[in-house]
């Protein structure tokens, strides 16, 4: 049992924090958010050079062989700087899926360019009307010779328009919400029959609605076994939850620090606001919410290699419940304690609040994961 | 005690409902429902319709053009507008500065400003907060120095709602340095077209463009625009704050939004059914409804006390705190209800004339920006922290 970061992770943390502080100032981030792609390919190349893209990937295919704790360390740093680059989509979700479920040929073909920053991925895990149910897959994959033809719609696919390839769950068997019969396909973004409607999101990222109209996928583009995609998808999403929980913890840390500083500098009634004990306690509660979130996020990260998917799922859901509730609380309180200034576009506070709000909905909100946590309880089985 | 409306009041309510249904232009109603950014003309058009019917100023005495309604009728009227929904009545002229002019202004000011406020010929905005004076409003530093027949005004106001549309601004300015800082403050009416007035928009993090900074650079204002006595501005401002009591709770608006929330939850698929059939989510809606019932009960009690000629107690702060908490809770539940489709944000889609199909359900787009924007409600008009200070001091005697 050791819940502290090891030496390598400490160094990694320092290097991410240094990068965010030096290269990812708020003004620069704002420009990136307003740019066409919504992030910087140059920054992405830097991530590759620093080894952050390779960090969790297997060593036999260009990776550094790290684990989910390393990812959490990186994502926490990204949360502090509201980093926009598609690390979650490409490395954690896409890369994680291929590493965990891909064939040897897929791993060899895709992981090295991914680690080098030359391949971007996206995951289309949601459908319109599916809410947060990963098994809600209406998209169908009909057998077509040796391959398949996919038809259906996917909702809010993050970074789809920038991705080279998109992981698309589709039904090769079964009814809409059945666990069995879901197959994961790795489609080229340029595939005929695959259309994107791209747009910005409220927190400055990019996403797209995806329409599949007979898009073709070869048998070699199936990830894992046909019809058995859901457990893989759940694993990828649990790891994604862990990663965004760590990101949220980083964002919360930034808000606690900014709010503390604001109260110490802003004077009203002739004294700094920090002189009012009632306001100090508000920041204390924010601080506690952050510490609890961070602890649970890293605990979940450490649980991702648990061979029991129920135990792993409960760890991820626990982190997501805490992240959802604390993200809302810390975000709202930070805005409130900044007063009118907290409402402005000019200050980072509102942007952290928006990101925390959207992390709250990503992969399921606190209610959804509270229910899942209860359902995965061995005592309830 | 009697919970039902009298026959007369029920008839009144029906009459208002019918009038709004028949006279609110369909395009304006559609823009309000879709959460579009309303152009200035929409507010003015609607206010002039109410003006022609004699209903634009429910709270004004009859002698100035008010309809002579009881407090309860005023409340019912506002509720009907909120339920419709109509564009909100811009309060700065009709509800805020007009009562101050009636109470403390001279005859010339009454003759000049009140008819134009009533007819919505002038758009007013409020110049209270300053960059260094928010919760501590009395520390304001915008200075008005007497010079011949004019005051010369220098300084800056901030968080000024819809100043970009305004013809006039009423300001708290410092006309003298006194031992007690409240004593050097005066209440001044300033033409926004005066040379030296500059408006700079403040974009809020939801993407909104409603608030502004207003700068005064050697602005000459006739001394005739001083309301009442120099140095009494703080008293007038407090009068103004106390004047508007029950509207701040926005009960009608919250009722309509709970209706919208339920309609959304009934459409959102969840766990094989819809979100409204999810007991956990339904319990959350119910909890807000109970809070709103409690809030409305306080409002109705205040109205009854007023009708009986008894001075209402210091409920304004309670209504502000609880009212905004309820509004924010509803905005959170709407945000939760739309789930993943809270994400897309196409800035142009909030302008009228954007005709592309929506991304996700048609009700989704304004919900996240509204949730973000409405965080302002517990900050503006005296933060909820300041409102708690007021209750602590004025009610509990700490």
Explain what you see.
The complex is a heterodimer of chains A (381) and B (398). Chain A contains eleven helices and ten strands. Chain A is of the alpha+beta class and 381 residues long. Chain A folds into three domains: 7-118, Orthogonal Bundle (Butyryl-Coa Dehydrogenase, subunit A, domain 1), CATH 1.10.540.10; 123-227, Butyryl-CoA Dehydrogenase, subunit A, domain 2 (Beta Barrel); 231-380, Butyryl-CoA Dehydrogenase, subunit A, domain 3 (Up-down Bundle). In chain A, strand 9 and strand 10 (271-272) form a beta hairpin. Chain A is globular and about 80 Å long. Chain B is built from twelve helices and ten strands. Chain B has helices at 7-23, 26-33, 40-53, 71-83, 91-104, 107-118, 233-243, 251-267, 279-307, 316-338, 367-373, 384-395; strands at 124-127, 143-147, 150-161, 168-174, 185-191, 197-202, 211-222, 226-227, 269-270, 273-274. In chain B, a hairpin with an 8-residue loop joins strand 6 (197-202) and strand 7 (211-222). The mean pLDDT of chain B is 94. The interface between A and B is large, with 46 and 48 residues.
Task: Give structural attributes.
heterodimer, A: 381 residues, alpha+beta, Butyryl-Coa Dehydrogenase, subunit A, domain 1, Butyryl-CoA Dehydrogenase, subunit A, domain 2, Butyryl-CoA Dehydrogenase, subunit A, domain 3, 3 domains, four-stranded mixed sheet, four-stranded antiparallel sheet, 11 helices, 10 strands, globular, B: 398 residues, 15% strand
Residues in helix, % of chain B: 40-55%
Helix and strand run of chain A: HHHHHHEEEEEEEEHEEHHHH
- Residue runs with pLDDT of under 50 for 5 or more positions of chain A: none
The CATH superfamily title of the largest domain in chain B: Butyryl-CoA Dehydrogenase, subunit A, domain 3
Strand order of the largest sheet of chain A: 1-4-5-8
Q: What's the N-to-C terminus distance of chain B?
A: 33 Å
Radius of gyration of chain B: 22 Å
Give the beta-strand count of chain B. 10
CATH topology of the largest domain in chain B: Butyryl-CoA Dehydrogenase, subunit A, domain 3
The portion of residues forming beta strands of chain A comes to: 15-25%
The radius of gyration of chain A is 21 Å
Overall mean pLDDT score of chain A?
A: 97
Largest sheet of chain B: 4 strands, mixed
Main sheet: strand order of chain B: 1-4-5-8
Mean pLDDT over the full residue set of chain B: 94
CATH architecture verdict of the largest domain in chain B: Up-down Bundle
Distance between the termini of chain A: 28 Å
Derived structural class of chain B: alpha+beta
Percent in strands of chain B: 5-15%
Structure annotation, total helices of chain A: 11
Q: Can you count the beta strands of chain A?
A: 10
């Amino acid at each position: 049992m050791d819940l502290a970061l090891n030496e390598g992770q400490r160094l990694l943390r320092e290097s991410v924090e240094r990068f965010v502080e030096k290269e990812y100032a708020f003004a620069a981030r704002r420009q990136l958010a307003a740019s066409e792609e919504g992030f910087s390919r140059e920054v992405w190349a830097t991530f590759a050079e620093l080894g952050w893209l390779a960090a969790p990937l297997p060593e036999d295919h260009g990776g550094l062989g790290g684990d989910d704790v390393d990812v959490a360390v990186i994502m926490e740093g990204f949360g502090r700087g509201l980093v926009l680059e598609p690390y979650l989509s490409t490395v954690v979700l896409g890369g994680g899926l291929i590493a965990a479920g891909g064939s040897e040929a897929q791993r060899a073909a895709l992981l090295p360019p991914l680690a080098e920053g030359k391949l971007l991925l996206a995951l289309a895990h949601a459908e319109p009307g599916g809410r947060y149910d990963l098994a809600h897959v209406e998209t169908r994959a009909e057998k077509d010779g040796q391959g398949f033809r996919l038809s259906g719609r996917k909702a809010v696919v993050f970074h789809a328009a920038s991705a080279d390839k998109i992981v698309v769950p589709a039904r090769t068997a079964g009814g809409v919400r059945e666990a069995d019969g879901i197959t994961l396909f790795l489609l080229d973004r340029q595939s005929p029959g695959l259309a994107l409607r791209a747009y910005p999101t409220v927190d400055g990222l990019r996403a797209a609605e995806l329409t599949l109209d007979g898009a073709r996928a070869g048998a070699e583009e199936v990830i894992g076994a046909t019809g058995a995609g859901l457990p893989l998808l759940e694993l990828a999403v649990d790891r994604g939850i862990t990663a965004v929980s760590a990101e949220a913890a980083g964002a919360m840390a930034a808000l606690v620090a900014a709010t503390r500083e604001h109260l110490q500098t802003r004077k009203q009634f002739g004294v700094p606001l920090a002189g009012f004990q009632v306001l100090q306690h508000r920041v204390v509660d924010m601080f506690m919410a952050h510490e609890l979130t961070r602890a649970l996020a890293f605990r979940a990260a450490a649980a991702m290699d648990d061979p029991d998917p129920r135990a792993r799922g409960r760890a991820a859901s626990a982190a997501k419940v805490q992240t959802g509730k604390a993200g809302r609380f810390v975000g709202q309180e930070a805005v409130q304690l900044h007063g009118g200034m907290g409402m402005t576009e000019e200050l980072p506070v509102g942007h952290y609040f928006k990101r925390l709000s959207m992390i709250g909905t990503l992969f399921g909100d606190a209610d959804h994961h509270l229910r899942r946590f209860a359902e995965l309880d061995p005592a309830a089985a | 005690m009697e919970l039902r409306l009298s026959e007369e009041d029920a008839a009144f309510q029906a009459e208002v409902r019918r009038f709004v249904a028949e006279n609110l232009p369909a395009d304006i109603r559609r823009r309000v429902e879709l959460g579009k950014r309303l152009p200035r003309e929409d507010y003015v058009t609607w206010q002039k319709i109410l003006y022609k019917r004699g209903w634009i100023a429910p709270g004004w005495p009859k002698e100035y053009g008010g309809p002579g309604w009881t407090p309860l009728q005023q409340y019912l009227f506002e509720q009907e507008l909120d339920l419709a929904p109509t564009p909100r009545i811009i309060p700065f002229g009709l509800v805020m500065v007009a009562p101050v002019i009636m109470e403390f202004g001279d005859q010339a000011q009454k003759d000049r400003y009140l008819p134009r406020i009533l007819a919505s010929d002038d758009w007013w905005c409020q110049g209270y907060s300053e960059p260094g004076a928010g919760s501590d409003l009395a520390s304001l530093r915008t200075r008005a120095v007497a010079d011949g027949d004019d005051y010369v005004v220098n300084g800056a106001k901030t968080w000024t709602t819809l100043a970009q549309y305004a013809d006039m601004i009423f300001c708290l300015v410092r006309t003298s340095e006194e031992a007690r800082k409240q004593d050097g403050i005066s209440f001044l009416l300033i033409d926004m077209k005066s040379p030296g007035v500059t408006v700079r928009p403040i974009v809020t993090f939801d993407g909104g463009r409603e608030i502004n900074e207003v700068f005064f650079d050697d602005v000459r204002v006739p001394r005739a625009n001083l309301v009442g006595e120099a140095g009494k501005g703080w008293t007038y401002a407090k009068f103004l704050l106390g004047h508007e009591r029950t509207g701040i709770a926005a009960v009608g608006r919250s009722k309509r939004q709970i209706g919208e929330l339920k309609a959304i939850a009934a459409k959102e698929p969840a766990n094989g059914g819809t979100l409204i059939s999810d007991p956990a989510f339904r319990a959350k809606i119910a909890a807000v409804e109970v809070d709103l019932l409690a809030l409305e009960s306080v409002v109705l009690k205040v109205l009854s006390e007023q009708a009986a000629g008894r001075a209402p107690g210091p409920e304004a702060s309670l209504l502000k705190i609880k009212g905004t908490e309820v509004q924010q809770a509803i905005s959170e539940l709407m945000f939760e209800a739309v789930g993943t489709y809270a994400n897309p944000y196409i800035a142009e889609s909030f302008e009228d004339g954007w005709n592309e199909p929506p991304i996700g359900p048609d009700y989704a787009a304004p919900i996240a920006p509204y949730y973000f924007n409405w965080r302002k409600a517990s900050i503006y008009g005296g933060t909820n922290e300041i409102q708690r200070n007021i209750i602590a001091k004025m009610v509990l005697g700490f």
